[in-house]
Amino acid sequence: MATIDPRLLPLIEALAAVDADWLAFEILEGLRQGRVAEETRDDLERTRRAVRSARRQPTPESQQMERPRMPIPLAEPILGDQQIDWAADYVGGRISEVVFMLETALDQLDGIISHESTREGSLSSEDREQGITLVLQADDAETSVSSDEVVHARAALTKLKDALFAWAASTRKRGITE
């Protein structure tokens, strides 16, 4: 397990301050795990063939035979400046994924509502123009996200990624001594 670079603390604190502590925890967990080696294309193809050709009901002979197990690939630790770059890329990627998932969910809800409203004639044209607002409620907290907010978030992703890139570059320049 790699030691967390202290230069990441401002990023972790900033994420916690904007209620994105879930993302801060993901960063810490990712750095703890390191880079796990991925399967090669040949390994994946062999596994696909083995799964496709496997019988549905195992025979008694096959249950008795011990199958060799593949060793778990060792993770490569992420160290120093690599942690800074990895964290910046990770934050940009995860926020992009969240915005994309919200956009997809709102588009699907809009499709469902549009389909139902044309069938039943229940929504006025003014209501349809306002767009969808998704309201999430957990315990005593309530959060809402409108389709307009998702459009603005999508537009701001480039600025976020540029800011993360600039932060990573300036943090790497400062080095560990500060």
List keywords for this structure.
9% strand; 178 residues; 7 helices; 64% helix; two-stranded antiparallel sheet; mainly alpha; two-stranded antiparallel ribbon; single chain
If you had to describe this structure to a student in words, what would you say it looks like?
- By secondary structure, this protein is mainly alpha-helical.
- Helices cover 64% and strands 9% of the residues.
- It has one domain (6-34, 72-174).
- The chain has seven helices and four strands; from the N terminus they run ααβααβααββα.
- It has a two-stranded antiparallel sheet. A two-stranded antiparallel sheet has the order 3-4.
- A hairpin with a 2-residue loop joins strand 3 and strand 4.
- It is flat, with a radius of gyration of 24 Å.
- The two termini are 23 Å apart.
- 10% of the residues are buried.
Topology summary:
Layout: H1 9-17, H2 21-33, E1 35-36, H3 41-53, H4 60-64, E2 75-76, H5 81-120, H6 125-130, E3 133-138, E4 141-146, H7 147-174
Antiparallel strand pairs: 1-2, 3-4
Helix pairs in contact: 1-2, 5-7
Give the structure's gist in a few sentences:
The chain has 178 residues and is mostly helical. It is built from seven helices and four strands, in the order H-H-E-H-H-E-H-H-E-E-H.
Give the number of domains. Answer: 1
The percent range for helix content is: 55-70%
In spatial order, strands of the major sheet run 1-2
Total strand segments: 4
